[in-house]
Amino acid sequence: LNASKIFNLDKSHFNNLTKITIQSIITEESINLKVTLVVPVHNKTQTFGMNRITTNLNGIPAIESELVTA
Predict the structure, then answer these.
(1) Out of 23, 48, 59, 70, which could bridge 34 as a Cys pair, Cβ 3.0 to 4.6 Å?
(2) pLDDT tens track for 50-67
(3) What are the φ and ψ backbone dihedral angles of 39, each rounded to 5 degrees?
């Protein structure tokens, strides 16, 4: 899914993820997806994020959920 391009992070770093947070917020009007990755890069912990919003054209019911791994 081109995650290395989206997060501007080398593919090899995805093997060492320390924490992942995924939050989805769906309203009648929009779908919002926020993803945060915490990964060691050159012996320093760094955080990379992505936030995407699109129109809820398919009428997905409103819901808010979050997944956190550590």
Answers:
(1) 23
(2) 999 999 999 999 999 999
(3) -150, 140
pTM for this one?
0.82
**Rounded distance, CA 66 to CA 22, Å?**
6
* The two structure tokens encoding residue 20: 């992942």
pLDDT below 70 — which residues of the chain? none
Contacts of 14 by beta carbon, 8 Å cutoff, 6+ apart: 3, 4, 39
Beta bridge partners of 37: 20, 48
Domain boundaries, the chain: 3-69
Per the document, the length of the chain is 70
